[in-house]
Design brief:
Blueprint (H helix, E strand, L loop, with lengths): L1 H9 L3 H19 L10 H13 L6
The chain binds zinc ion.
Zinc ion binds next to helix 3.
Length: 61
């Protein structure tokens, strides 16, 4: 029982780590570089990312 608990504590959670890196990368791309190509159909979403870019001081225009 203790061996299982120790293995669980030390085993990296690769799925969770991969998902976290992908989500962080997607967020940085959407906030920092998305110019309407992906959110052209949803102007509200584009405006939200644009506002976040300004809020965070990311270079924009
Ligand atoms: Zn701007």
């Amino acid at each position: 029982m203790a061996a299982i608990a120790a293995a669980t504590r030390t085993t990296p959670k690769w799925g969770l780590m991969t998902l976290t890196v992908l989500a962080a990368s997607a967020t940085v791309f959407l906030v920092g570089f998305e110019q309407g190509t992906l959110t052209g159909g949803l102007p509200v979403l584009h405006e939200a990312f644009h506002d976040a870019r300004h809020l965070l001081g990311f270079p924009c225009h």
